[in-house]
Amino acid sequence: MNTAADMVARYCAELASIAPTLPAAEVPWIQQTRNKARDDFARLGFPTRLQEAWHYTNVGALQRRFFALESTDFSVGQSTIEPLLYPGLDCHRLVFVNGVHAPELSAIGALPKGVELENLATALTRTPEQLEPFLGARGQQTEHAFNALNTALLRDGVCLRLAPNTRLDKPLHLLFLSTGEARENCAQPRNLILAAAGSQAVVLESYHSLDEAACLTNSCSEVILEADAKLQHYKLQEENHQSYHISSLQVQQARDSHFESHLLSLGATLARHELNVDLNGEGARCDLNGLYLGNDRQHVDCHTEIRHMQAGADSRQNYKGILDGRARGVFNGRVYVHPQAQQSNAEQSNHNLLLSANAEADTKPELEIYADDVRCSHGATVGQLDDDMLFYLRSRGLPEDTARGLLILGFARNLLEQMPLKTISARLEQKLIDILSQSHGLKSLI
Amino acid sequence: MLEISNLHVSIGDQTILKGIDLTVKPGEVHAIMGPNGSGKSTLSHVLAGREGYEVIEGSVRYEGKDLLGLSPEARAHAGIFLGFQYPVEIPGVNNMYFLKAAINARRKANGLKELDAFDFIQMAKKKAGLVGLDESLLQRAVNEGFSGGEKKRNEIFQMAVLEPQLAILDETDSGLDIDALRIVAEGVNALRDPERAVILVTHYQRLLDYIVPDYVHVLSDGRIVRSGGRELALTLEEKGYGWLKEAAAT
Amino acid sequence: MPSSSEDLQSHLRKDYEHGFTTDVESDTLPPGLDEDVIRHISHMKHEPDFLLEWRLEAYRHWLTQREPNWAKLNIDPIDYQAISYYSAPKTSKDGPKSLDEVDPKLLETYEKLGIPLEERAALAGVAVDAVFDSVSVATTFKDKLSKEGIIFCPFSEAVQNHPELVQRYLGSVVPTTDNYFASLNSAVFTDGSFVYIPKGVRCPMELSTYFRINAANTGQFERTLIIAEAGSYVSYLEGCTAPQRDENQLHAAVVELVALEDAEIKYSTVQNWYPGDENGVGGIYNFVTKRGDCRGDNSKISWTQVETGSAITWKYPSCLLRGDNSVGEFHSIAVTNHHQQADTGTKMVHLGKNTRSTIVSKGISAGQAQNAYRGLVHMGKNASSARNHTRCDSLLMGDRCGAHTFPYMEVKNPSARVEHEATTSRIGEDQLFYCRQRGISEEDAVSMIVNGFCKEVFRELPMEFAVEAQNLLALSLEGSIG
After folding, report:
1. pTM: predicted TM-score of the whole model, two decimal places
2. If exposure means fewest CB atoms within 10 Å of the residue's CB, which of A157, A252, C43, C132 is most exposed?
3. A52 contacts chain C (CB < 8 A)
4. Partners for B (CB, 8 Å, 3+ pairs)?
5. Mean pLDDT over all residues of chain A?
6. How far A431 CA sits from the closest chain C CA (Å)?
7. Domain assignments of chain A as residue spans, ordered by start
8. Averaged pLDDT, C307-316
9. Residue C421 and residue A359: Cβ atoms within 8 Å?
10. Which pLDDT belongs to residue C6?
């Protein structure tokens, strides 16, 4: 009993049984998309370590338990979310509880002309035909089990559409809350951001647990940036240490568009962040920054794939890991340069700090290059705090653990400094300090 | 030796040189001065045959023959040397080896016997001493990890070894302190010879305190706007390039 | 680097230089593989029972395996039953006792290959064991070496004369179950070289083996075993060539190195198997398992390879750094042109304390070739203060080739340090112009820049090999310029 196959079958059965209750269930293309994805998931099953993309990440523990897909009513009060908001951040806000929109907690507010912001369930019901090109079966990654599972549900999330040359006036804060109460739930947010030519937006996704229940978040986001569009994307993942977090973000970039991503991964027992960017036009640029912390038995896996499909695009990646306790951090970044993509510039770096005898860092930066007039480089390191620096600080009278804490913060900080939105970076830095104070003597300083 | 007439050159759709006329005879030293962006480096590159420039009008004759049809190496074999403003680093390629290949390629093209390793090293060491190049740099890769001054000195050293008929020194003085400048200048002066011509491309007149030119030409917006003797450089220093524009306007 | 552009030009004009076949009558088994073939090979070689059993075990395991497909290679299916697993020149049956007994045609072959046999060998200070198709033909300098207690002989001879050493060490680094091609090799290997350096002995000359595949439709499965006892040192060179043929020929070798306490093994390879023609027809499939075991403390193994040949190269010379303070090195140049494919790199497995490894990989890709570096650096739990530094540079020549880098780094010890850096570039136009301005032709400039790019690796090769390797580089990049 309880083999992986049984579990896959159980998900499929539940998906089939709740299908009629899902939003826009009567729309044929939506029905087909869900059915096809369910078949894909049944065929693929959960990934195993034999698959190269999952070589360092074992999802065995995740597939031994069942996370309920069916939504129930959860009463979450305004006071519960208050501490999760960003003081001083004037924003549009959408809140999701276990992957389902909670309108009473959300505050969309007034929107500029040309901006459509709503939850996906509403959009699917209101304008299904407009979403088909993006969510229809044609556009789906059929060989990705978790994406298939997400698509098989296709229930709710955010849908943001920006008309040409519009600008979302304030950042959009998406708050994803998981709560178990009596059972282990599965949240599967599905997000779609369509930014037409010359439009701009800032989006912050944050993921939190409201209790100690083990939940699964399997989020799937798609971003399409047309010519000259700009998106600044922040993601903070701080679910509890029992939970599982799997996410994939697919970005399509047209000419001269700019995508900027800042990831801070702190929570979950297993967190996997996939970020795939296709640079489809000249002058397109992406900057990806990521910081992942692991402690206890946490496992965090950052996967990026940047595909330079056309000439003259730039990509830059900078990921850093801080691994303590028995944690394991994985970075797998791939840069692909298509034969047509001459004059590509790609830089990729991954640096890891290994702080304890039982922590592990695995890193695999890859270059796959089919064009000759390119400048591509990558660097990766795994190491420790610099002894000389440590000594220097101690010789100035700092206790050792404080000195270590400061240096760790210093290691992380330059990523936070890259964030243009200071209200967010200040808050994240505080988070980092809180975490480091638990194991290091930073509190005395701050 | 060199006759440039009505030379027009463009890069892409931008015309950089708009009708240059210049005649250089053996034994002469010509200084070409001008503000940034006036076309000085373009002129040097076109004379050495760098790709990416289009000659849209005019001609360049060198020792009576058309120069523009020749490949960069054929020009080098004919005795043209370009001292680069930004000498290129070539990782892993030993400086001595590089120079030996260069000198022998030229000797071969001119029907001379190639130098053997012994003769070459003797000669190279002598020339290195002449331009004050640290001998340890000879065994390093070409310009790799050299300081700005070392790179420029290496250019002069290469010129000394290759003994060109026409040396074009593109902003050789930029980035040099006064001592380095003096050594570079001494190297150039030592090579002055009735058979050899030098074109000095420079932004500042201070190099001309050390290498006294026979002629000074001022390049502005792709044209030689004024030619004169040594005194022109001093006037320029005193009054600045703005003076020329005013003079041209009136 | 050729001393003048003339030398280079003459090299560039040449086709695959070693593409001649030698007309020697050979004893060849009909194509096909089953247990009887293995028994036959073992019988012909008068092998002891343990070896036959060992082969059969490997064969049975091989039957349960599938070809690996994780490398970045496009391989036409291989029909293992169409290959002949044994081919010996007839004269070698009785085993030549000295060079005089060797078929003059073979000696001529080696001469064409430029192998320093006979006096030339003495001048070069090289002892040569030549493996022609599947059997070792002659080993020079045996006497001189045996005075030092060094054993350098064909593998099959070692099986006869030193079975205890063979039994003790064979498969101790690369077990029969290691991978598909290692299992196949274990089942059918016919010959190779055997080296044993006694305790405290510094081998007085470079040891060298030339491998050559000659007969059509044969596979070559050589097995090399080098044992360096405590405090000993040996430098071993290996060269490979094969004649030009339309069909693909299989080469699946296994090399095992064992370095005991304070011992050092330096293993250099210049691989120049026939790469196929410019349309990708023919060429050798080179699937090689090479691994060194730094078994003792303070031991050192370094691999240096210049890979210019083969249609397909699948090869990861590795070091198991078991002994404390042991050192592993990998220096590689891999050149691919036309339709060649290479997936090569190394594995540095750090198990002992304070172990060190260095990886320098230079990949050059031209024509429509694909060139991948794949490497693993593993820092085990007990590898405290272990260090690795990896540098991978790729050079692309032309816009139809590919250069790929797939490093894997696994670190389980918090005092271990791993650094990896990689770049991909092409020859800069400004570099070319600079050389040409100094009078050097474009072709010479390219050759010079490529050799400069590879210099760190050439430096690791013994002198006479370095020259050969540089010539090969120019030869294999023929026509890729401009």
Report:
1. 0.84
2. C43
3. yes
4. C
5. 91
6. 25
7. 4-387, 388-446
8. 90
9. no
10. 42
In the block, tokens 């076109």 appear at: B46
Which chain C residue has its CA at the smallest distance from A360's CA? C412
Residue of C nearest to B92 (CA): C452
Residues A53 and A199: their CA atoms lie apart, in Å, by 34
In chain A, residues with a C-beta closer than 8 Å to the C-beta of C419 are 379-381, 383
pLDDT confidence tier of residue C199, bands split at 50, 70 and 90:
very high
Q: Do C414 and A378 touch (CB under 8 A)?
A: no
Mutate to test the interface with C, among A56, A354, A390 (most CBs of C within 10 A): A354
Q: Nearest CA to CA, how far is A341 from chain C (Å)?
A: 10
Instruction: Print the domain residue range for B102.
Output: 2-249
* SS3 (DSSP) at A7: helix
Chain A residues with CB inside 8 Å of C350's CB?
Answer: none
Q: What is the pLDDT of residue C127?
A: 55
pLDDT digits over A226-278, tens only?
A: 999 999 999 999 999 999 999 999 999 999 999 999 999 999 999 999 999 99
Structure tokens at B108: 């071969």
pLDDT of C174 above 90: yes
| CB burial readout A227-249, b (16+ within 10 A) else e | bbbbbbbbbbbbbbbbbbbbbbb
In 3-state terms, what secondary structure has residue A407? Answer: helix
CB contact under 8 A, C403 and A379: no
Confidence check: pLDDT of C386 > 90: yes
Q: Which of A50, A317, A366, A372 to mutate to test the interface with C (most CBs of C within 10 A)?
A: A372
Q: How far apart are CA C245 and CA A263, in angstroms?
A: 55
Residue A265: which of A228, A233, A290 has the closest Cα?
Answer: A290
Please state, in angstroms and rounded to a whole number, the distance separating the CA atoms of residues C207 and C140: 10
B vs C, Cβ pairs < 8 A, gives: 88
Interface of B with C in 98-117 (CB under 8 A): 98-99, 101-106, 108-109, 114
Domain containing residue B12: CATH number:
3.40.50.300
Q: Do B72 and C437 touch (CB under 8 A)?
A: yes
- How much of chain C, in percent, has pLDDT values that exceed 90? 50
3-state helix, strand and coil shares in percent for chain C, rounded to the nearest 5: 25, 35, 35
Look over chain C and give the mean of its residue pLDDT values, rounded to a whole number: 82
Q: What is the pLDDT of residue B245?
A: 67
Q: Diameter of chain B by CA atoms?
A: 62
Considering its fold, how many domains does chain B have in total? Answer: 1
CB contact under 8 A, C399 and A339: yes
CB atoms within 10 A of CB A330: 25
Report the C-alpha gap between B23 and B4 in whole angstroms.
Answer: 6
Which C residues 382-421 touch A at CB under 8 Å?
A: 394, 396-421
Going by pLDDT thresholds of 50, 70 and 90, the confidence category of residue B153 is: confident
Cβ of C439 within 8 Å of Cβ of B98? The answer is no
Q: What confidence tens digit (pLDDT) does each residue in C274-286 have?
A: 888 888 888 888 9
Q: Where are the beta strands (DSSP E) in C214-317?
A: 223-228, 233-241, 248-251, 254-259, 264-272, 283-294, 300-307, 312-315
Please state, as a whole number, how many other Cβ atoms lie within 10 Å of the Cβ of residue B40: 22
B172-213 pLDDT tens trace: 887 778 877 887 788 888 888 899 999 999 887 888 888 899
Q: Based on the number of CB atoms within 10 Å of its own CB, is C203 exposed (0-12), middle (13-18) or buried (19 or more)?
A: buried
pLDDT at residue C20 is higher than 60? no
Q: Residue A324's closest chain C neighbor by CA?
A: C414
In chain B, what residues touch C1 (CB-CB under 8 Å)?
A: 97
* Chain C residues with beta carbon closer than 8 angstroms to that of A373: 399, 426
User: Is C459 part of the contact surface with chain B (CB cutoff 8 Å)?
Assistant: no
pLDDT of residue C144: 77
Query: What one-letter code names the amino acid at B232?
Result: L
